[in-house]
Each structure stands twice: as structure tokens, then as C-alpha cells.
Design brief:
The chain is an alpha/beta fold and about 750 residues long. The chain contains 21 helices and 29 strands.
Length: about 750
């Protein structure tokens, strides 16, 4: 076995004789560069994972960062090897070179888990090292090219966020440069190559732990091409068309797939170039320069706002109106009293609904916390724009403040740490975090999928997956030290302090997001024995494609063994909602006391919905109705209460609020103003809503169509099948309808991509 491993490594190295002599001459590190060697970014037992960080100088402004991931067939190489990215030091970039576990130590997904953990470490410590977390790039060659491509396409794929540090923030990358990396292991053979990629001892087979064609599911999991979504970062692929190790078609496949999803992608063919560009018509330095130019184009122009330029802020008009944005977390619309739930006690949100416009068909675009919040704050289906919602108000003279979770924060990691998460500092005049103990809150703790009940504080599932989503705590205290109570208290302080000036205040509550912590009094009255689980149909999953099935299913997470604990999950979810609702009520009562209702737009919504046993699914991040449908209430001064069945999207909030206060609406937003519905709830502002998770969904008044990245589909008649129990995608009688919906989805995506 050891002999075969050595033979495989030597074979990989032997096909690139032109590359290795050049690479041994690494780019020169400037004499004044700041070098931090062997920085530990994660510890796994006795194993320390390290990176080297290079900074060009002691800058007074945060630096863009490019992360170099080495190649070597996932079997060899190290962070200390040749690194063309070091040339970026001369252009004012910081560069990190990361190590990851090679396939001889740990098979897939270890390497990508390590790389994502390194990104998370650098984001969490961006302030310490003077880095700009909004301008992170990744660059890699061969196996490293594969890994950086995977970094780019799995930003929102939680299954690879397994390391403890990956629970604290998101491994967000904003640009990817892929040098001759594989993208689809299943389609590497059939081209001129010096090795059999399907063989059991090929680098790819060793990487995944089995022969490629005999382990197709795992191969697909390892393919960057599997995870592409419309919001992935721009990518550059540089590949020789005479590559004898990784066929040129690998970059072609990835480039074409990215373009199909309308991700900015550039493919540069090195004519005559072998693996490593040997014998190619361009020099290695020319290709390095081309790659650096790509990073300049993508990273240097965007979101360069480490300091607010207050000289550019305009003065708000006299008598300008205010905005109060209230955001819940993981709240499904159907769980609220004002949306028809007969068990939930949500009197304050219900009272707001009774005074505002209730949207019965509001849909999120991202189906996990980070993508959704980024989407509605920038009014973009995926990715970012130059200006976000709160920034637009701040730059036009409004006091802009965040309290709690508005952009993505890892819950519970960022809440326990009291950190900013993935905040956009350009948004706010002031910002405040609301820390809490989360699962370590004293009280009656339960980890329901393990049937673990305890009152002591030891051995609690707090930040580790996969058990933390099923944790509840019946808290012994009054709730004043809970994050949502703190968020309401600080919001009330800000309302008092800024009552006489125009404000945009966003208050982000973390409940009912797990761990479902609430004072004991809020659990009282929710007798789990009285609660009803969602309807279950035998063999329900048979017509749901693999990419449409939640990874958090009852038979996988253990809850199928404990039916009563499924009801306890519902009870804890309701209790968390009721506690959050009480904090919303505190804020609204203070708004009334200050006489600000007559000048303030109030929005209440959630980032996305949540599964609680529907189809045996739990949690979020899929395209079914329980996840994509969200509560949305808009209360405007002087407007009567009403409800509307019109389809709307969370990206519509930006243009709606900007138009209502009299600001210009940026031309590149993807949303549509909802103000016509305030005057006429029966009006139509759009034909359908798009959501993203392993593909896209298109929700119209009558139909729900889902198209996944592997081409599989779901189709539901929502008027006759509201629980989505009968997939009609393969029904011949519905083929024409499916085609129409597919064309409508493509048309919408094409139109917004042009903005």
C-alpha cells in the first residue's frame, strides 16, 4: 500500500517537470513585510492546523486578503511550498498560506473542512491582523485549485462547517482563482491523461477514500460543480489545453456551469500548456500577473468602507420619516397567531398585524440565516451591491443603528462571544451586540434528539453539531439577561435618544433559533401532549429528489426514536416565540409612549421559515413551503389594516422603505416596491418569488416549482396540495405547466442578472 502511494505521488510530480523548477523560486517577500509563521487556526485533538500570514506593511486601513491553498494531488505539498500569491504583497494584499490534512491522514471532506476553518479563523481575527473581511480571495493550483473552487461554491453549505471555529462565523470568499484544478471527478477520464483517474489508487480515489466510479455519491459531494448557486463569488480559471494530468475539460465544465447559474466566470486557456503551464505560449509570470489583475478587479473596487466618510453624508430632509425594522430568526409564518396557529401565544405581533398590512405570501430568497439577511439588506437575490438598505439611509442623513442579529451571526457562537458576526459596518452609525449564555443558561436543559434531560451545566450540547439544533432550556430567571431582552432594552434606549431626529433602527431577535431558551413561565401553557405534529404520509420521501431532502431528518437525527420529544420541540419553539413576542411588545409600547407611531414605518419579518417535522424534516435550508414562506407585516402611519395574498419577496423591503421615506431607489436592486399593495391589497406587483437552496424555486400563486443543481425537480399544485405531498414533476399531464414555470424562472433570473 505504501509503495502504491509513493508511486502515485511520483507519477503526479513527474508530469510537471517544467513547473517545479520554476515554483521553487518563490515570489520574494518584501523586507518590510510582517510575517506570522505557524499561526494555529484550529486544534483537533492533538493535531494543530496552521497557516502562515504575510502582510506587506503596517497599514492604517484593513487589507484585502488572498488565501493560497497548495496543490500536490491532496497527497503531498505544504504551506511552505512555492506560492505565486506572495507576488500580491507588492500590490498591497495580505496573503495567507494554509495547511490542510492530506488524504493519507484524513480523507474527504477533511481538506475542505480545514480550508473553511482557516477562512473562519481569518475572518474572526480580521481586526487583530488588519484584514478587511469583505475582501477575501482564494487562489490555488491543481488540488489547491479544486479546494478553492469548493470554497467558492460551498460558502453556504453547512455540512462542511464541522470544526468548532466554523460554528462562529461563515467562510465567506469574494473571489476565486483556480489554476488547473479538478471540478468533476466523474468526468475526468476519456481525455488524454497519464493516469487512470477512476483507478482505486488514483489521487482522486485516495482523496475520497474509494474508487471514483464505485463511490459516485461521495464523488459528487467532493465536486465544486455540485454546489453552484447564483450568488457564488466571481471565478477565474487558468488551465493549459494540453494538460496531461487534469484535463482542460475540468475548467470548461466548471466555467460553463457557473455561467449557466450566472456567476461571473472567466476561463483563460493557456495554449499548449501542460499541467503547471509547462510548454505553454505564456510565461508563468504573465499568468501570475493575469491572476493578480483578476483579484484587483474584484476585490479592490468593492465594499471599501473600513471607515465612514462622514463628509459624504447628506442631511436628511425636515420632518423625515423613521423606520423600525424588527427581525426574528428561524420563524415560520404559520407558527404565529396572526397567521392562523391556534396554539401559539404571540399577542404583540398579532396586535401589530391588526394595525398593519399582513402579507400572506411573503418569501425569503436565502433559506439559511446568512444568505437571507444579506439578500434582503442588499435587495439582491444573491451576492451584494455597492449599497445596502441601512447604508442608504445613513448616507442620506438618517441615524442608523443595529441592535442584535441583523446580518448573519452564528447562533449560538457569536451570541456567546458577543461578536459582530458577518456585519456590514458601512450600514450603521452605531451598533450593539446582545450576548447570552445560550445552552449554558441555568435551568432545565434538554437535548431532545438524544433524550438527554439535565439541570447541571456540565456536558451540554452548546456549539457543536449535529445535536445543538435540538436543545431547549426552561430558564429559571426572569429573562433580563437573555439576548432578546437585551436587544429590546437597547432599542428602547435608542428610540428615546433619537426621537427628535430621523432614524433607521434595526432590532434583530435571535429566538426562536436554537437553542430554544426562554424563562420557564413561557413554557407554561404549552403542554406538549396537546400539540399536533405535521401530517405524515407513508413513503412521502420517495418522490422528493435527493437534493430536496433535508439533511436533518427524523431518521437521521434520532428524533424518530422519540415521538414525544418531537412534540417537546414544538413546545420549546412556541415558548421561544412567546418570549421573543414579549420583547417586540416592549419596543412597540415605547414607540407609542414616545408618540412615534405617526412618523415611523414598522416592519416585522423573519429571515426564513423552519421545519418542525414536516416530511420528517427539521431545520431549514431547503425549498419547501415551511422554509421559504416567512411572516411579513408592514405598519405605515395613516394606513388602514389589511391582508394581501399577492406574492412578495424579502428583497422588496429595500425599495419599499426607501420610496416611502422619499429616497431614490438604487437602479441595481432586485426588489419591487410594495407600496401599491398598501393602497390596493388585491393588486399584483410580481408574478412569482425565487428562493435558493441546492438550486432554485419559483413560487407563484398556484404553483411551487423547484429545480436542483443536479437537474432533478419538484412541482406542487399549492391550491390542491398545500402540504406538498404529491410531486408532479414527472407527471406527463403537467409537463407543459412545468415547462412554463421553468421558463418563467429563467426569465426572472436573466432579468435580474442584467442589473
Amino acid at each position: 500500500m505504501r509503495g502504491k502511494l509513493v508511486q502515485s505521488i511520483l507519477l503526479v510530480l513527474s508530469v510537471t517537470p517544467q513547473l517545479w523548477p520554476q515554483q521553487r523560486q518563490a515570489a520574494a517577500v518584501p523586507d518590510d513585510a510582517i510575517v506570522d509563521k505557524d499561526v494555529v487556526y484550529e486544534t483537533l485533538g492533538d493535531r494543530q492546523l496552521k497557516l502562515d500570514l504575510y502582510r506587506p506593511y503596517q497599514s492604517t486601513e484593513p487589507l484585502p486578503l488572498v488565501i493560497w491553498v497548495h496543490g500536490g494531488a491532496w497527497q503531498a505539498g505544504s504551506k511552505n511550498g512555492p506560492n505565486p500569491a506572495l507576488s500580491l504583497l507588492q500590490r498591497g494584499y495580505a496573503v495567507a498560506s494554509v495547511e490542510y490534512r492530506l488524504s493519507g491522514e484524513a480523507i474527504f471532506p477533511a481538506a475542505i473542512e480545514d480550508c473553511k476553518a482557516a477562512v473562519c479563523f481569518l475572518r474572526l481575527h480580521a481586526d487583530r491582523y488588519g484584514l478587511d473581511p469583505h475582501r477575501f480571495g482564494a487562489w490555488g493550483a491543481s488540488a489547491g485549485g479544486h479546494l478553492v473552487s469548493l470554497l467558492g461554491t460551498t460558502i453556504d453549505v453547512a455540512e462542511f462547517d464541522t470544526h468548532p471555529i466554523s460554528q462562529k462565523t461563515t467562510a465567506t470568499i469574494h473571489a476565486v482563482c483556480n489554476w488547473f484544478g479538478p471540478s468533476d471527478f466523474l468526468r475526468m477520464n476519456g481525455f488524454a491523461s497519464v493516469i487512470d483517474h477512476d483507478a482505486a489508487n488514483s489521487p482522486e480515489s485516495r482523496f475520497i477514500g474509494g474508487a471514483i466510479q464505485e463511490n459516485k455519491q461521495k464523488s459528487r459531494r467532493a465536486n465544486p460543480i455540485t454546489y453552484i448557486t447564483a450568488g457564488d463569488p466571481p471565478m477565474l480559471h487558468v488551465h493549459g489545453d494540453a494538460d496531461r494530468l487534469v484535463p482542460f475539460n475540468q475548467s470548461e465544465l466548471l466555467h460553463d456551469a457557473l455561467q449557466k447559474r450566472r456567476v461571473p466566470s472567466t476561463l483563460h486557456k493557456v495554449v499548449g500548456g501542460d499541467h503547471g503551464f509547462g510548454k505553454g505560449e505564456e510565461t508563468r509570470q504573465q499568468l501570475i500577473d493575469r491572476s493578480m489583475d483578476f483579484f484587483d478587479r474584484v476585490l479592490k473596487p468593492r465594499t471599501q468602507h473600513p471607515k465612514h466618510d462622514n463628509s459624504a453624508i447628506r442631511k436628511a430632509p425636515q420632518n423625515a420619516k423613521n423606520v423600525l425594522l424588527l427581525i426574528s430568526d428561524d420563524l415560520r409564518a404559520s407558527a404565529l397567531g396572526c397567521y392562523g396557529d391556534k396554539f401559539c401565544r404571540s399577542p404583540n405581533i398579532d396586535e401589530l398585524a391588526a394595525r398593519g398590512l399582513v402579507f400572506d405570501r411573503a418569501y425569503c430568497q436565502g433559506t439559511a440565516c446568512g444568505p437571507s439577511r444579506r439578500s434582503f439588506m442588499f435587495s439582491r437575490y444573491r451576492g451584494k451591491a455597492p449599497t445596502n438598505l441601512a447604508q442608504h439611509f445613513r448616507e442620506n442623513g438618517w441615524f442608523s443603528a443595529r441592535v442584535g442579529k441583523v446580518y448573519h451571526m452564528r447562533v449560538p457562537g457569536d451570541i456567546i462571544a458577543g461578536s459582530n458576526g458577518d456585519d456590514e459596518d458601512s450600514s450603521w452609525t452605531e451598533r450593539y451586540n446582545s450576548a447570552g449564555q445560550e445552552a449554558h443558561t441555568p435551568g432545565e436543559y434538554a437535548c431532545l434528539n438524544l433524550d438527554d434531560f439535565r439541570t447541571d451545566l456540565q456536558n451540554r450540547q452548546s456549539t457543536a453539531m449535529p445535536h445543538r439544533p435540538y436543545v431547549s432550556v426552561q430558564y429559571d430567571g426572569s429573562g433580563e439577561d437573555q439576548p432578546d431582552f437585551k436587544t429590546a432594552t437597547k432599542t428602547i434606549e435608542l428610540l428615546n435618544a433619537h426621537a427628535n431626529e430621523p432614524f433607521f433602527i434595526a432590532a434583530g431577535f435571535v429566538r426562536p433559533h436554537y437553542p430554544m431558551v426562554a424563562p420557564r413561565q413561557y413554557f407554561e401553557g404549552y403542554d406538549w401532549q396537546d400539540l399536533q405534529l405535521p401530517p405524515q404520509v407513508k413513503d412521502d420521501l420517495l418522490d422528493i429528489p435527493k437534493l430536496g431532502r433535508s439533511r436533518s431528518r427524523s431518521e437521521l437525527n434520532g428524533l424518530s426514536q422519540f415521538p414525544n420529544n418531537q412534540k417537546r420541540m414544538w413546545a420549546a419553539y412556541y415558548a421561544s416565540i412567546s418570549f421573543m413576542d414579549q420583547q417586540v411588545g416592549r419596543v412597540l409600547k415605547e414607540l407609542d409612549r414616545l408618540g412615534l407611531r405617526d412618523s415611523t414605518a414598522i416592519v416585522f419579518t423573519s429571515d426564513h421559515g423552519y421545519h418542525l417535522g414536516d416530511h420528517t424534516f427539521w431545520q431549514k435550508a431547503d425549498l419547501h413551503e415551511e422554509v421559504v414562506r416567512v411572516p411579513l407585516i408592514l405598519s405605515l402611519p395613516g394606513e388602514s389594516a389589511n391582508r394581501t395574498n399577492s406574492i412578495v419577496e424579502l428583497v422588496d423591503l429595500f425599495p419599499t422603505l426607501a420610496e416611502w421615506v422619499g429616497l431614490d431607489v438604487p437602479s441595481n436592486v432586485h426588489g419591487t416596491s410594495l407600496l401599491p399593495l398598501v393602497k390596493d391589497p388585491n393588486a399584483t406587483v410580481k408574478d412569482g418569488a425565487i428562493s435558493f437552496a441546492n438550486g432554485e424555486s419559483w413560487r407563484t400563486a398556484h404553483w411551487s416549482y423547484m429545480r436542483y443543481n443536479d437537474g432533478s425537480e419538484e412541482l406542487y399544485d399549492m391550491q390542491n396540495d398545500p402540504y406538498q405531498l404529491s410531486n408532479l414533476a414527472d407527471s406527463p399531464q403537467h409537463a407543459d405547466q412545468k415547462q412554463r414555470l421553468r421558463e418563467e424562472l429563467e426569465s426572472r433570473l436573466k432579468n435580474v442578472t442584467a442589473l
